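User: Working on a comparison across species. This one is SDR family NAD(P)-dependent oxidoreductase from Sphingoaurantiacus capsulatus. Can you predict its structure so I can line it up against the others?
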Amino acid sequence: MSRNFAIVTGASSGIGFELARIAAENGHDLLIAADRDLDAAATKLRALGVEVDAVEGDLATPEGVDRLLAAAGDRKVDALFANAGHGLGHAFLDQDFADIQHVVDTNITGTLYLIQKVVREMKARNAGRVLITGSIAGYMPGAFQAVYNGTKAFIDSFGWALANELKETEVTISILMPGATDTDFFDRAGMSDTSVATGKLDDPVKVAQDGYNAMMKGESEVVSGWKNKIQSSIANVTPAPVLAEMHRKMAEPGSGKR
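Assistant: Here's the predicted structure for SDR family NAD(P)-dependent oxidoreductase from Sphingoaurantiacus capsulatus:
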């Protein structure tokens, strides 16, 4: 009997790698993707006794997503972990627009393109599970991280909507909403000197396990970590200008040195 097959994006490190590891430990052969070198990740995952194919490419582009789908071939996708994404710190007016566009295209455009392609096939055979990595950042206006938070607000909302559209099928959509997690996210986003980056960060192993468990149960969402659950609940009843000021204190450049 063939094993289940999973696609994991953003799998070179952090939450994405841990999701791939958990899927492998639960008997999934893998197709992993990222815009960074995947050799080390693939080697570790193959040591778990599963087949692992890797595609290095820019999932912000249709061409990058098409390369990933071509690598999947005609294999039935049992689980899709749509985890690829990255942030961008500093003031919006100080950012290069090419960097802004890449965040939007990675976090939203490429993610939606991949999900539509894979989930159409899932719906046709009435089976499949999807875990989308959103963020509790989607609950807050992200002063000094405005574009990233905006993309996560979109992704959170999109995931809930798609889950509802598919509620009468056997295809499940789950949204994983982590808080600040101990990955290379902040270094890549140019936020290593911020208060949020220098504070206590969540363990990506636990975050990934929370997401995987929610997906397997068919739950529509999971906020990982009790502190993040409290923060997201507070955000629902707090005025947006207050939330923006709170976020400023966490994400303003240099705030971690004060």
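For your comparison, note: The chain has ten helices and seven strands.

User: Helpful, thanks.
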